[in-house]
């Protein structure tokens, strides 16, 4: 399949990044980063999560952060929630752009660890979310299959297990009379490789032929950009990414391999531009945002292009 | 074209890495790294360069380093030289495995900057090296085309300029009656992308149909592993790489974008293994070597897998 003409990139850095860092980064700094990302042309920015402030104190001030952002028309400032309480908080936070997002898991052990529920029970619970979103007047926009490639408890997840999660979603669509616009395969803890990416995209297209396929990749083991390229060659045109590769944690040992960041937004944009794929983003502004993120966090971040700079365009007259 | 069944990886870390760091790393530490790399199965390790000690004091002790290494049978411990003096020093250093390597440039400005000669004059000077190597009883093993994709003075290098360098090599083969076993396309300062990698491999195969194509990639702008994957899919089975991604310099600003390291050996090996390609290397031992490199250098290095660890193999009985 050919490369897409255009890709859509959703920014995850403000949530992914600051969720894993020490608490205490100022609202002003985090708001300025979100604003810089919007200036660079990002149209979908995940700002913060509405989760238990006792477990994730970094996100306790999510509502204040949303309120502090100078908003830009046409940009969606989204949040993440994992339970009803979180959704109620997000709903009550006026400037949050609510999204009808469903979550499924292909790893039973990972689902139990993260949700206290196995993958099937968790999947069944999404039926309640379909109905809840409807009650709030929200369309179902997308579904994520987390740990779609593997996880740190079970290792590689079989294609059959992923297919089971996907077939559940297909059945849920029929039973609840909706059609899923987008299905994300999430390589939550970095188990994907270019071959498994291609095979699992095929599988998702077979089971959910009407859904646009998106990828949520982490660069845990260095294959993030190779995986993105493999997906682009399958015509995939929807990616999550984190500015500067935010979300990685240099202080986490190998037992926390899951703590590596999303693939880096500006490096992905550079890949797309080099391949002639439109992103709608302003790469120099995006690099400014990445460098702002680095100044805020106060240590070298993982992004490559932000440190090397853009290559020169060919200068006339220098050629031999 | 299909993936190769097996790849050969040449290790560049000991030279690439320590050449760019402050001088003064001990011979003992550097020798122990080389030994760890040989233990991991690497069969071609570039240990040091024989260059002007006034310009590159880090490599002033190259001969002592070679002497200190406990050698392993079957491993080639190679060096780099840029002029006759360097070659004479290397030749006089008993344990150096001399290699008949030629160097060409596709960028005129970069060649002038590095060699004081334009690309054509430099290319012509390689005829002298063909003869010199023969006088020393050395086979011509390989030729590098440096800056085969672009450089930081001229930006992108056109395919026509690369073709000119390749045609010169083809003519030199005929005129000097040798057949080049291996031709490396070197992305010296990180201008390659998966598309240009594929196009330029095709070009090299067209002009030098008998040469095995190798790639020397730097991960300057985050596309290193995507570029390697694109090459693997073209059947390329010969790569240079640096353990832990050695060779990067976090203190170099964007004006020194060229200071990013080679693609990371163990991350490349991981990619290959995930794709079912044999490398002949022991990945856990290679990770030990990468972590040793990090302890010696004393700061976080760029490799990903060394920090995240290998993924679990699927554990029986955990599946739902």
Automatic annotation (TrEMBL), chains A, B:
Under InterPro entries, the record lists: Aldolase_TIM, HMGL, PYR_CT
Decide whether keyword Nucleus is in the record.
no
User: Domain Pyruvate carboxyltransferase: where?
Assistant: 7-287
What are the UniProt keywords, alphabetically? Lyase, Metal-binding
**GO annotation (BP), single:** L-leucine catabolic process
One of its Pfam families is HMGL-like
From the UniProt record, which GO molecular function terms apply?
A: hydroxymethylglutaryl-CoA lyase activity; metal ion binding
The similarity comment for this entry is: Belongs to the HMG-CoA lyase family.
NCBIfam families attached here? PRK05692.1
PANTHER family per UniProt: HYDROXYMETHYLGLUTARYL-COA LYASE
Listed name of the protein = Hydroxymethylglutaryl-CoA lyase
The organism named in the record is: Ramlibacter humi
